[in-house]
Amino acid sequence: MSSVRVVIVDDHRLFRAGVRAELEGLVEVVGEAGGVSEAITTITECKPDVVLLDVHMPEGGGVEVIRGVAPTQPGIRFLALSVSDAAEDVIAVIRAGARGYVTKTISGPELADAVRRVADGDAVFSPRLAGFVLDAFTGGAPEPQDVELDQLTAREREVLQHIARGYMYKEIAQRLGISVKTVEAHVSAVLRKLQLSSRHELSRWAVQRRLVSLDGP
Amino acid sequence: MGSAAGAPKARVRRYRYPERGLLGGVCAGFAEYMEVDVTVVRFMTAIVVVAGGIGVAIYALAWALTPIAPGSEGARRPRGVWREAVLIVLVVVAVLITLRHTGLWVGDQFVWPLVLGLSGITLVWRPAVLRPGAGAADRRLSWREYLRSRGGRIDVRRLVVGALLVVFASASLLHASGVLRNLGDAIGAVAIVAVALGLLVAPLFVRLARNLTAERAARIREQERAEVAAHLHDSVLQTLALIQKRSGDPREVAALARRQERELRRWLFFERPDGAGGESVRMALERAAAEVEELHGVPIEAVVVGDEPLEARLEALVPAAREAMTNAAKFAGSDHVDLYAEIGTERVEVFVRDRGAGFELDAIPEDRRGVRDSIVGRVERHGGRVAIRTAPGEGTEVELAMERARA
After folding, report:
1. pTM reported for the whole predicted model
2. Which helix (H) or strand (E) is B387 found in, with range?
3. Disulfide engineering: A162 pairs with which of A12, A172, B226, B323, CB 3.0-4.6 Å?
4. In degrees rounded to 5, what are phi and psi of residue B346?
5. What's the ipTM?
6. Would you call B53 helix, strand, or coil by DSSP?
7. A165, A168, A174: best to mutate for the B interface, most B CBs within 10 A
């Protein structure tokens, strides 16, 4: 439980203060940044274990921070944290390299837990992210080009569905009769597919959102 | 001499053979008629043309007067543009030569530039817009269509050639009349004044145009801003006022904040309320979740995958899910409820999960109508399936599934 070093990146000072207060005593907050360029400088200086990253910011948002840091600091992990975002923005941050996505309504202890899991190299999927990912990999698109990357296995799908239903990893393991490690492995595999596959561009929600904007609800 | 194109000696009809000839098929037709080799006819025609202008006139007249041979391809195939142009020129030249020979003539230096200029003007003004048709069926617009039409392909070559002809014609006309020498200075002066005026006025025009664009953009921005401000006023500011009033009740404040968040999110990322079209399953479920959350003050995390229109069979699913959420919010004592729905083309599945007290499934009294009637009965009557997983202390999950009617 020795403290994980965290940098908070968000363009709202009030929100940074709130997160810092909630994480007090659970993890070590070593820095804050309110913009993309400031974030890149701070992260490079502080060398934290985990960066809590806002999806939406001026100057390009979380995606730009990851792009600016990841090439020189491969050890730093990113966890996207945001109030509510469009699916494509969240998926974009994940594809850029974030290890997970949680909504800002998450409680302090849960957030600290998520940070620790990301620091350990796990992927953290909130129910909402699980929903986005299932949507991205479900139907809509034409034949997958790369069967290995463009499709979820039945088990991965099952695990994601349980996350979306609000189950914890431990409960999922129990229900499916597998170990927690296996659940984590499935989630990591999904993350890898999400980052490497190009199928998301043809995904269901992309198509649907376009339909929505054209034809109304 | 005139016999090349032929006086009508016999009553047998002569024809042209456009597909066989070099130009209009006149020589070919004559050769056919006289039963001689076409090369001989052509040679003689060439001599007549070179010897005096009258040969051209005769050829052109013969072309205009002789009908195309029946069954010849030329009758059906549209003539090539160039061939047509050459023949028209020939006719004009023929007419001019005839006029000249008969003495109706004002002088070479006036007539030729006039003709050139007129043909230039014709080139420019004749409808040059091609109406796009199926493949080769492009055709020129008629005059009337041309004047009314907008856009369309404009034949630039026509414009350039026409303009060059007109300029050349007017220049030579002026030169011939001797006006040019006297006019030279005046034209120069006018040109200089025009250029100077242009230099003076051009920046003004550019500024005017730019201002107009900027003003329009500003107006559009202002409209957008007013719309956003109006929306925020009706929603966010009202909620903030309410929150300030009720700051003593954290539960109420949280509920207000969540409702506002949900509305704002919908406004930002999804459809505007004025959009047309029927409700979808996703929208119905999300609305139900929002209503239950508002009514009972327990946050409901709604995650919906996929979407389909809300058809009659599925309509039973939404109130059942709503009832399950209400139960969870009212009785479970959980700090939040998860709603997950997967809407596929073949089936729809809805899960409502809480982490509350849970209960003994067999111990539901017969009179607990909520679960029995509103959830299980309702869904099963419509051919769906309900599964309830619960145990005391472990929370509850209600699973609703329904196959979709597929043609």
Report:
1. 0.55
2. strand B385-390
3. A172
4. -100, -35
5. 0.77
6. coil
7. A165
